[in-house]
Amino acid sequence: MSLRIRTSACTTFAVAALAAGTVLTAPAAGAAPQPAAPKFLSASQLPPHPTSSWTAGPVTEGFPDEIGYCVSTEGVPSYDYKNRLFRTDVDTNAAQLTVVADTAAHAKALAKHYDDLVRTCAERIEKADPDVRAEGRDYGTLPVEEGARVRGLHTETSGGATDIALMSVGRDGRTVTVVKWGQMGDFGDAPVAAFKKTTTTAVNKLY
Questions:
Q1: Which of 158, 160, 152 has the alpha carbon at shortest distance from 189?
Q2: Average pLDDT, the chain
Q3: Which end of the chain has fewer CB atoms within 10 angstroms, the N or the C?
Q4: How far apart are CA 165 and CA 137, in angstroms?
Q5: Integer Cα distance of 28 and 6 in angstroms
Q6: Dihedral sign, Cα of residue 98, residue 107, residue 10, residue 92
Q7: What is the pLDDT of residue 9?
Q8: What is the pLDDT of residue 15?
Q9: Which residues contact 10 (CB under 8 A, 6 or more apart)?
Q10: What is the pTM of this model?
């Protein structure tokens, strides 16, 4: 989905995300040390675009706004987030987020929390902005490491603007990754098979 969701809706999504998911407990004292930094996707590992190549930005600290319209840090521990943004020369974009939890149990809870937020995103969008119609779809799980799930989200404004996004949440041990792809269009424009391959690569590539 492109990043043209209306500001009034965006500001409400972060608040709604807290109500949509379970608040996670804070990391326990004396937690195990952090493993090596997880690796990120490269531009060539994104779903191919028919007319434009992908460009990958640097890996940076923080939680990216490009994912925040469905997923947020509200109600979860203050972990260190890292992200990488991708773009093409046309209206197609992507982002990857990684976060290392202090235990595998916390990572499992965090992955479920983020997947729940993606699953309920369409409903929260419509509640936040009556001028936007939204629909979510479940594209199933992937048998990679501790698992991943792929979902789709289509939005259409009253003015006729339509956007499509694919999002996935996956886990490898204590590390959770969220991958998002988006552009103008509808479900017929979504490269689901290619995005599943990208998600599998993203989880396998973490370590």
A1: 152
A2: 87
A3: C
A4: 10
A5: 38
A6: positive
A7: 36
A8: 34
A9: 68, 69
A10: 0.84
**For 153-196, how does the pLDDT look when each residue is reduced to its tens digit (9 = 90+)?**
999 999 999 999 999 999 999 999 999 999 999 999 999 999 99
Q: How many CA atoms lie within 13 A of 7 on its CB side?
A: 0
Residue 93 has pLDDT above 70, yes or no: yes
194 vs 77: CA distance, rounded Å: 32
Question: What is the rounded end-to-end Cα distance, in angstroms, of the chain?
Answer: 28
With b meaning 16 or more CB within 10 Å and e meaning fewer, what string describes 116-138? bbbbbbbebbbebbeebebbbee
Name all contacts of 155-164 with Cβ < 8 Å and 24+ positions apart.
155/1, 155/5, 155/122, 155/125, 156/132, 156/186, 157/6, 157/131, 157/132, 157/133, 158/131, 158/132, 159/131, 161/4, 162/186, 163/1, 163/2, 163/4, 163/5, 164/1, 164/189, 164/190
> 93 and 3 in contact (C-beta within 8 Å)?
yes
- Residue 94 reports pLDDT greater than 50: yes
Six-digit token string for 21: 């998911």
The pLDDT value recorded for residue 24 is 57
CB of 121 closer than 8 Å to CB of 191: no
Picking from 77, 52, 68, 44, the residue whose alpha carbon sits closest to that of residue 202 is 44
Amino acid occupying residue 71: V
